Amino acid sequence: MSEMPGDLQYTKEHEWLRREEDGSVTIGITDHAQSALGDLVYVELPEVGQDLDVDGEMAVVESVKAASDVYAPISGNVLAVNEALADVPETINTDPYGEGWIVRLQPAGEIDESSMMSPDDYQTLLDELDEVDD
Amino acid sequence: MPFIPHTRKDTEEMLAVIGVPDLDTLFDEIPPELIIDSMEGVPEALSEMQITRLMHKRAAIDGTPSCFIGAGAYEHHIPTVVWDIATRGEFYSAYTPYQAEASQGTLQTIYEYQSMITELTGLDVSNASLYDGASGLAEASLMAVRTNRAVKSRRVMLAPGVNPIYAQVAEAIAGSQAITFESIAMDAKTGNVDFDSLDDNADPVAVVIQQPSFLGTLEDVDRLTNWAVERGAIVIAIVNPMSLALLKAPAQWGDSGADIACGEGQPLGVPLSSGGPYFGFMTCKQKHVRQMPGRIVGRTTDLDDKPGYALTLQAREQHIRRSKATSNICTNQGLMVTAATIYMSLLGFDGLVKVASQSQRNTKRLVDGLCSLDGVQRVFEGPYFHEVALRLDRPVAPVLAALAANDILGGLDLSAYTPELENALLVCVTETKTDEDIDEYIDAMRKVLATESASDS
Predict the structure, then answer these.
(1) SS3 for B154?
(2) How confident is the prediction for chain B on average, in pLDDT?
(3) Looking at the partner chain, which of B149, B150, B315 has a beta carbon nearest the beta carbon of A62?
(4) What residues of chain B lie within 8 A of the CB of A47, using their CB?
(5) How many domains in chain B?
(6) Largest interatomic CA distance in chain A
(7) Interface of B with A in 146-165 (CB under 8 A)
(8) Which pLDDT score, from 0 to 100, does residue B457 have?
(9) Domain check: are B222 and B159 in the same one?
(10) E strands, B36-112, where?
(11) Among the three residues B343, B360, B391, which one is the final residue of a domain in this structure?
């Protein structure tokens, strides 16, 4: 069973979003995603100031067995990246929803809520994936 | 791995199992217009005996001339033991096995090779090799664009000393990815970068510096490296590995060193051959390693704490990263690399210094001798390693033809490469030439020039 904070939104690409009070959005990958990837050894981050399109490449997370693209769940401008991941990428493994955040974006326009999942919906998705695995 | 032949009966049984009547049907997805049943210009097959005779006959036409041509591929003495070892069954393959770690000897050879190349170039990490020096420049340019995301220009600036063939290959490979290559102007006196022509507002993603230059000159690599670094550019060094026994390693260029070094590995134990196979090498600073193409072998310890070797950083490679891979190349020129590793370990650094010094000394003897003749002078001033551009008082091609009649390959006619340098000839001497060989060349040139000018008047 994956850990899953209730105050976040999720995507079917296994990313989470936190709506900050200032209107920005913090993004990371879920506990399920980090667990599937295994021990992370490298994270390639976008540049602060860069404009990202929804579904465009946002970051690359590399584990000992795979390197995967992390796609931007929303369009926006990069306000901050988690520089600490350069030296300690495994923070994503140990604290995916906290210190393991990846990017903070200033959303460009309205966020398409239809592509966002509640914790319950995301749990349903994970349960379905489990069934497929069985 | 056992060799398993199959009989016609085996084939029929296998086809029957999958329900296909014959081999043509199995491959029927190949569009008929792509199937070739005859090749224009290619003659009928010859028997082995016939082809052996033909090739011996053709080889005899070449004879055994004295070679003074360099221009990217260099004749060095290769101790017999190099290829005796490299062609042993255990090494005699271009590739690592698919289950790479099962072949610790191959991996260790590559690891030793990487260690030696990083020592020569002074940089932190080496890959297991590339196809050749020219594709090395293309890969280094692609790598520079991937790693230098702060500069958006995708413009790669080439020092005038970059081998023009390398520039063409890099353009062919990397040009389709919207990378543009532009040459920096040449100072006509030195043959190197015209620093006055440099635009301080330029924003190249990378600057390529070849040392020694294609025309044999020695670039002010420190100044050019610093200029490039100040613009935020990645510095790509193209170097002759043999020259590094005498010249400053790319890691020491300027205040911060080159970021990537690449070049042609052929001088290290690979014989001259029309078009190869040769091998390219590439090293870089640690911080760029994830953008480096090709395989990297690392040293590790097993469960019993014994040393072992493993492919490392594989997540960059195509079997994992698919279309996002740093490149589609793997171990590549494994056999050539094996030879180079044996060559370098046999000679040691002192041996390389001796080869390089003797080559330099021999080149000086030839250049001084030729320049003492009427009608021969150096194109550029300044120091050189083992290659020099000379200007003749007449077109080069007929002079080379006359020398060839005396069994001397007198150098490269530069008219096809740098037509702006009129009547220019590029000569190179390695340690393989004796003083007598060199004096014979000077004598032959004296006679050729005298005859030709006599017929002119």
Answers:
(1) coil
(2) 93
(3) B315
(4) 149-150
(5) 2
(6) 44
(7) 149-150
(8) 42
(9) yes
(10) 66-67
(11) B343
Q: What is the CATH number of the domain that holds A65?
A: 2.40.50.100
Query: Which residue do the tokens 């097959």 mark?
Result: B45
DSSP bridge partners of B119? none
Contact between chains at B324 and A47 (C-beta distance less than 8 A): no
Residues ≥6 apart with Cβ < 8 Å to B296: B114, B125, B126, B127, B128, B289, B311, B312, B313
A41: which chain B residues are within 8 Å (Cβ-Cβ)? Answer: 315
Query: Residue A7 has which token pair?
Result: 């105050």
A63 contact residues in B (CB cutoff 8 A): 315
Between B451 and A33, residue with greater pLDDT: A33
Q: What is the mean pLDDT of residues B175-204?
A: 95
CA distance B338 to B114: 11
Helix, strand, coil content of chain A in percent (nearest 5): 25, 30, 45
- Is pTM beyond 0.95 here? no
Whether A65 sits inside 8 A of B149 (CB atoms) is no
User: Which phi and psi angles does A3 have, rounded to 5°?
Assistant: -75, 145
Interface test with A, best of B296, B314, B319, B326 (most A CBs within 10 A): B314
Structure confidence by residue, pLDDT tens digits, B80-136:
999 999 999 888 875 666 677 888 888 999 999 999 999 999 999 999 999 999 999
Residue ranges of E strands in A30-127: 40-44, 51-52, 57-63, 67-71, 76-81, 103-107
Residues B229, B115 share a domain: yes
Domain annotation covers residue B19: no
Q: Which domain holds residue A78?
A: 9-109+117-133
Q: Do A67 and B316 touch (CB under 8 A)?
A: yes
| Domain membership of residue B379 as a residue range | 66-76+350-456
Summarised one tens digit per residue, pLDDT across range A61-102 is 998 878 889 999 999 999 999 999 988 999 999 999 999 999
Span B365-389, average pLDDT: 97
CA B388 to chain centre: 19
The count of other CB atoms within 10 Å of the CB of residue B33 is 6
Who among B149, B290, B324 is closest to A42 (CB)? B290
Q: What is the DSSP string of A47-68?
A: -TT-EE-TTSEEEEEEESS-EE
